[in-house]
Amino acid sequence: MPDWISVNTGLFGMKEHFGPLQGSSFTGDDLVLPFGKDVVKDSPDVADSAHLDGDEQQALYSYYQQYVG
């Protein structure tokens, strides 16, 4: 399973989504995920952003797997 990063999206950054760190890179000081903004914004919701349980991790992994080339 990949490690995850929390990404704030939406108006004023009020929504929080998770994206996998695997395949990401740095451009200067910016971390760039290997997925577009819409893919991250449509990722499965997580009940508690402080903790990902096993089912939530599996849902996220399955979701992002479909976008891996």
Question: Which helices and strands appear, and what pairs or packs with what?
Answer:
Layout: E1 4-9, E2 15-20, E3 25-27, E4 30-32, H1 37-41, H2 54-65
Antiparallel strand pairs: 1-2, 3-4
Please provide a written account of the structure.
It is built from two helices and four strands, in the order E-E-E-E-H-H. It has 69 residues and is of the alpha+beta class. The longest helix is centred in the C-terminal third of the chain and has 12 residues, at 54-65. The mean pLDDT is 91.
Task: Sum up the structure in keywords.
single chain; 69 residues; two-stranded antiparallel ribbon; 2 helices; 4 strands
User: How far is it from the N-terminal to the C-terminal residue, by CA?
Assistant: 17 Å
- In total, how many beta strands? 4
Order of helices and strands: EEEEHH
Portion of residues in beta strands equals 25-35%
What spatial order of strands do you see in the largest sheet?
1-2
* Main sheet makeup: 2 strands, antiparallel
Give the % helix.
10-25%
Estimated radius of gyration: 12 Å
Q: Write down the overall mean pLDDT.
A: 91
The unreliable regions are: none
Shape, principal axes of CA atoms: globular
Structural class, please?
alpha+beta
DSSP summary: helix tally: 2
Short description:
The protein is of the alpha+beta class. It has two helices and four strands; from the N terminus they run ββββαα.
